[in-house]
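Fold it.
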Amino acid sequence: MADSTAGRIRAAARRRLARHPRLVALTARLAPRSVRARTTFAACLSVAVVLATASAAVILLLRANLERTVETGAREQAQAVARLATDGHLTSPLPLDHGTDFIQVVDAHGRVVAASQSLAGHPAAAPIDHQDGHDTFNLGARGDEHHQRVTTITATTPTGPVTIHVGASLRTVDAAEDLTTAALAALSAVLLLTVGALTWRSTGRALRPVEAIRAEVASIGDRDLDRRVPEPRSDDEIARLAGTMNAMLERLEAAGVRQRRFIADASHELRSPLTVLRTQLEVARAHPDPDVRNDLVAGALEETERLQALATDLLLLARLDATGHDWPHEPVDLTELVRATVAARGTEPHPVTVHTPGAVIIHGNPQWLRRLLTNLLDNAQRHARHHITVRLDLDLDLDKAAGRALLDVANDGPPIEPADQEKVFERFARLDDARSRDDGGAGLGLPIARDIATVHGGTLTVPDTPGTATFRTSLPLPGDSAAA
């Protein structure tokens, strides 16, 4: 109910504003746009609200205290007159104490029994209002237009009861209130100006590095990724923002360098077989011997297959780069996939020993996972001396109900040096420059395998295993499988 009412109020407000487009435009134009202006406005508004509340409280307390003092003096004067009336010693005119404007004693019949000099000859003052235990009298007839506080008490005299009215002036109270209000207003204005100036200046100084960062980033083009934004010396949010921006620029620069190097390497890898292919076809076309021509055509077919495989790898790399972590979450029995992949390859040129537990279910793309294992086996076959070992294990964390599947592909060839354990995963990288492309491939198998592992939320690393070269793939298990 309240929400609907509030919605109707907002809708009515929007309709009223829609009928006054100039007011809407003026409001939008006057609204502070920059962070600096909004911060200054908010600071001044907050301080103004606090100052107004505090000033009102001070003025109210001051007036209440001064009025209480005046009332106390008037009551003491009235009590003194009451004692005189009780003793039958009333005289006229009655003397006034300091701060008292008038005294008037009226009997039960409304006749003035005694009065101060200020009310001598005046009739009895009739109250026109009663509030908070105090009467208000109309004394305008004698020219007293200032505020007064009148205290009334009753006393018993030998001739009967009388009512005593004692009026005390509030001139000092009003003057003190006016002076205090003016002083507080002046001090509040000075304080607001000071707060506004300090906030404007401090906000400007705080935002100056942000503007420098913005200007530097705006001027950085795709060919200027080596530039960096200025980092403030302070250890605050802006310094951390600058550090984050520079780290991002470093990643972008590194990505650009990798992309340019990849394009150059891909161009080189494509140019060599294309050159060979063209040469063979031209020679085959001009050579008269059919046997030579057939050999050249067969060589050209081999180069074509190499080009086709390289193009397929490049397309797969591009797809993996574009996929990120948005991959199919299809249940895959990793144990069955390992056994089927190894069995389909046969034992040439080196036998493969497989060690697997029971069913290991993960989520992923079975074709890509099969390609990962195939690339690792191809690499192992190129470097193994006698045999290859494929081992699938589970690394469970029962406390967190999670775990990982560990797939190791090891060969008894030369181990990979620690300095080259990351280099082997670079695209088109070949540790042995003397190897031919027939033996070493294009250098994309291991990068593709690592990208597939990364897309599946896993890792592909080279652990330190003395005497062997091992590639370890770690893939996350589903929560239910780990808990089981």
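The chain has a mean pLDDT of 80.
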